[in-house]
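Example record

The entry below shows one chain as it appears in the dataset: sequence first, then structure tokens.
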Amino acid sequence: MNATHCKSPHFNLRAGDEPISLLVVHNISLPAGQFGGPYISDLFMGRLDCSYDASFADLAGLEVSAHCLIRRDGTVIQYVSFLDRAWHAGVSCFAGREGCNDFSIGIELEGTDTEPYEKVQYQQLALLAKILIKQYSSITKERIVGHSDIAPGRKTDPGPSFDWQYFYALL
């Protein structure tokens, strides 16, 4: 898979020796509902100019990242090595285990909860998921979840616009 690499400063080493066993699907757009600008990368790289848009005020000082972003056109940008711990899940729990960043890989889709994702995004996500499943045998179809699944009540992404059935059919 071809990916552009932009090393985010917002990561750390994974704790312990637990295998990577979860893939978390997110969405993001900056400003909300707008696509194609540099702002997602700027956020993950720690260089977002929060004065650019009033909606960015809450992002000042935020240190967040994802392993990869899949843009609307299918471009994949990798910010954090899969071997490292990206800061994507926040307060989270899966199968009784808290702190999902410790054992997961986070993939952001450029999008919103309500706007349909592009077919090329599903294709790229499925390709990436297949690679990760092959590399990390503890990641199974049942261990590919939305951010909303590990942070219910706090997060809603990837939202009702994400077609899980279509995505699973591509795996």
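Notes for this example: Residues 133 and 139 are 5 Å apart (CA to CA). The first helix runs from residue 39 to 44.
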